[in-house]
Q: What sequence folds into this?
């Protein structure tokens, strides 16, 4: 890219390393950044470095955070006896947006995937079992509804069974607003199996 | 976003200010960045700040660059008597990618647009006329084929006429690989008007 001067080419090259950002998008972003207020560019640059340099796993739930305990684990108003198990921090954020769940989380940082060589020891399962030695009423398994997520859910439920702690799985079925005509057969069967009395 | 710790929320907020990046994409990018190598994040952060802090207009052609003269204007192998007028630096890059044009550029940094209140004095036209006082053989007008681009091309051609310098406009017509059936009427008429003998 010798038609741009070095620092502009460098910026485009760095931006195009990000996921989902091709060369054209990187170019568009770079020129937007070059026209931004200097202070705003410094704020973005600092946000990048601060977040990356200080990020760590919450010592309780293993979500990504910049403090020893994440805001949820350190909140005394949450129900620490109810643990929802999710695959990653974004899944946790998705449930937080509902503003209805009052328990805490456990972030596995992955799911069991024999295809990708990820076994039970590669995700935060030991840490979950350790938490269950404390005072826990219920474990809600909210891994994704994918092959890996289902495998992980099954594996965890078998691990928990001997402890006697209540273990539940979030429902699988027709999404709200969904049109039966366009929904796949597996989901339709799940919805039928999971029917509840009205 | 109290479900993410402060620095992670800040990073997501800063990223979502960029064009074309909504909250979900910002979240995805942020988590990608948190999993990146620290050195790579520092490189990205430095690229942002270096490019923005050092960016300026080339004193010859007014493209964005980080040196006084851009790599093209400072290249003695280019034909400095042939000037291609474009709207912005990305248009210049588009022609540079063809690797066939050997002249230099003049970047207007915009186009005349009465609708948006951009007049001839708001773009780098005076600077172009100043360059034409030197030794110039040809001015190639390569503004976009939009209403604003055409208006600007017309305006420039009228300004240049009295100087006696050869002034050309890039051809407008059917794009290579284009299927006549799907091309708009205006383009078809332009292609007809601009027909050349074979």
A:
């Amino acid at each position: 890219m010798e038609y741009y001067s070095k620092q502009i080419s460098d910026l485009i090259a760095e931006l195009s390393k990000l996921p989902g950002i091709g060369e054209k998008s990187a170019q568009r972003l770079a020129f937007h950044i070059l026209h931004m207020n200097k202070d705003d560019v410094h704020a973005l640059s600092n946000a990048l470095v601060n977040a990356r340099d200080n990020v760590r796993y919450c010592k309780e739930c293993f979500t990504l955070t910049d403090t020893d305990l994440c805001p949820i684990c350190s909140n005394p108003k949450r129900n620490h006896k109810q643990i929802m198990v999710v695959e990653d921090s974004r899944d946790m954020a998705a449930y937080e947006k509902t503003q209805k769940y009052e328990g805490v989380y456990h972030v596995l940082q992955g799911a069991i995937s024999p295809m990708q060589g990820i076994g039970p020891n590669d995700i935060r399962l030991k840490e979950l079992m350790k938490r269950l030695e404390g005072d826990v009423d219920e474990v809600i398994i909210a891994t994704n509804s994918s092959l890996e997520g289902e495998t992980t859910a099954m594996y965890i439920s078998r691990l928990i069974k001997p402890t006697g702690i209540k273990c539940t799985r979030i429902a699988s079925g027709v999404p709200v607003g969904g049109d039966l005509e366009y929904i796949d057969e597996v989901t339709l069967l799940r919805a039928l199996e999971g029917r509840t009395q009205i």
